[in-house]
Structures
1.
Amino acid sequence: MRPRSLLPAVLLLAAGCAAAPVAGPSAAGCDPEPAARSTIEHAQNVSLRYEEGYQVLTVAEPSPGAPPETYVLLRCDGAGIPAELAGAQRVRVPVDSLYAGSTTHLPLLVDLDRLDVLTGIATAGYVSSPQVRERIDAGEVAEYAPTEQVDVERVLTGRPDVLMTGGFDDPAYATLREAGVPVVANAEYLEPSPLGRAEWIKVMAALTGDEPRATAVFDELEAAYTATAERASAAGPVPVVAGSLFQGTWSVPAGGSYLGRLLEDAGGANPWAADPSPGSLTLDFETVYATAGQAPVWLATQDWSSRADALAEDPRYGELAAVRDGQVWTANRAIGPGGGNDFYERGVTRPDLVLADLVAILHPDLAPGHAFTFYTPLP
């Protein structure tokens, strides 16, 4: 445990350092009109509005069930902020220092070529990116939640211009805000669509000032995703079952979920595609088997190396047609040195690569010689 007795002293010091209403680099003398603006088209959980001298960023659901949060991204000192935004957190942009609450933030910075602003990561052991690991090993990126709980003293010592959350609330965030460290929610995982999640690169760019680069990156991956989905749409749908048992229940993707939409775009026949729910459906093995037990493809979600591992965990898996004489795949091809899975890091922001893997699995004739990025077959 961290020494709680140090907290009052650190907060007192931080309060003295945080006399200014906003943290971050000085924006004096800035151009009130940005060089470029980002337009949010696919993401539903975030909006971005540009005004003279500032932007208004609103996250509709910063954590599950939480009310919306609005942030003023201040480009210019003296910008006229209307009274209705008086209570919104302010972040001076572009930021020079950012603490990331989730590994899903890292590929955004990599794709923007702005790893220079990354100075903190919640838990370093889960990082897969070689570029980020180099910065961690060089002591350029601090770890501020090694036990998965935010260490207030570590954050205040680092004094980042902004801390981006991983989409969950933490009592420490209120303390940090009071001490002058802006805390901005990133809840991209609540987006139901693959392109909606990827579009959060524009949110990161609004903080770093890299809107033109974000638009170029997103437009390229959107085009690749769309082209791959169009190829798959011409093929007949292939029955597929996704998920695995966990503590006696099996979570399968509903049609309105992130994975459900990926399966549909990949030309997969998901038995629960008609359910518009944005998340997973929790079922027992018998129900899954009765509905999808004869599917020739199983996309498992466990860290197995072979079908024997699956059978050792639960012999009932052997009743699945995919295990007997079909295909079993897991998204564990790219595992980092600390055990982090790049599928849950870069895969979130590069749905075009995930979709390409899925199409190659379900329709190998459409992707001859495909080099898999995330998925690997289980022997």
2.
Amino acid sequence: MKVVDIDSMKAARDTDGLLAALCDEEEYIRAKAAEALADFSDQIVAEALEKLKFEDPSTQVKESASRAHAMVIQRIEEKKEKMI
């Protein structure tokens, strides 16, 4: 997979494609996919990023996933507040 694919999936809001990219063999692709998922407010995305931030062998990917996870959780909380 290429970075341009990640950018295209992000632009198309292709959650499934980005989640699949979290399993790519290239750590740079996994990190870019995690970063792209930061713009979503979906519980499935949050769970995938949480798992990645603890289990990926790459420090770079763990850091990207951790930042993205925090942003997704924040978006989910903001979404909940708007519903109240």
3.
Amino acid sequence: MRPLVLCELAVTDLRNLARTTLRPSPRVTVISGPNGHGKTSLLEAAYLAATSRSFRTSKLGELPRHGCERGEVTATFTRDGLSCVQEVVIEGGRRAVRAEGKRPRSLAAFATRSPVVCFHAGELELSQGAAAGRRTLLDRVALFFDPVSADDRERYEDAMRQRKRALDERGPTARELDAFEALAATHGARLTVARRRTAQALAEVTRRWFERIAPRGLALGAEYAPGGVDDAARFATELSLRRGRDHARGSAGFGPHRDDVALSLDGHPARAVASQGQHRALTIALKLGELDLVAEAAAALPVFLLDDVSSELDQARTAALFEVLAERQGQLLITTTRPELIDTARFSDRLDLSVRDGALG
């Protein structure tokens, strides 16, 4: 399987980056510098160019540089000898995207052209934080296997918002509830199917990675815990029966917005029994699982962005991660405050760059 390679990243007025061009190594690029000078912003720009989203915020209006109304990023990727240019412009809290100078048919189509996976500080909550992070992981992977799942999620969420508004304003007897619940049931059932398939595949590959990097004899369990059902008729019936309860509590107690992936160690909930080292090993296993599944679906090794990994992981877990990555041929972009701690002796073509005050040096 051939790797996707980010050849050039041109950033204008994003975060604290005024006008910056990054030309990384096709294998390993280590970007160092003090905190707050733009290291993470460079990775965020690369992620934005590939996916149209930020891994740091859902508020697009935060991305343009202070005092600027517009920010933009252009990335050139190569894959199997062919190049692809992707552009994202953020202005007025909205985004405009182009691939090869043309508008894609959907944001999902844009986000799956050039597969990128990111490890950042927030990912450490995957094993011990709220279920929302694990749902997001499922949706990122599902996007590559079933791009329509993104549309199903958006339509489900919109229908459920309309249902809640009707309940809040007119109560459980509101006439429009049947229509909103039918829409929510159709798209919610499809989303449940996509997430179940993704969760099953992710669980299998995550267990294999965990067995390799965690203490021997420790059994990982990962099971999809659906909040809804995959049958639209049953889904709609359940929503109808729950109108009174949902009205009283102010939120819906049924549906894929309550999905989770239940993680366990030797049969006990990981959140309750795992040590910090075990949580980190589990997080790494989940991210390697994401890498493997995205690579399989995209038929290309994704670019892997690692933000300040030496600070977020202890020495043992960092060594285990880089041992695995050395066996793969994918491109790595790594940020750190201490480049001497990044052991890439097993790798070739390491490029070291530094960032200060938003400028590469």
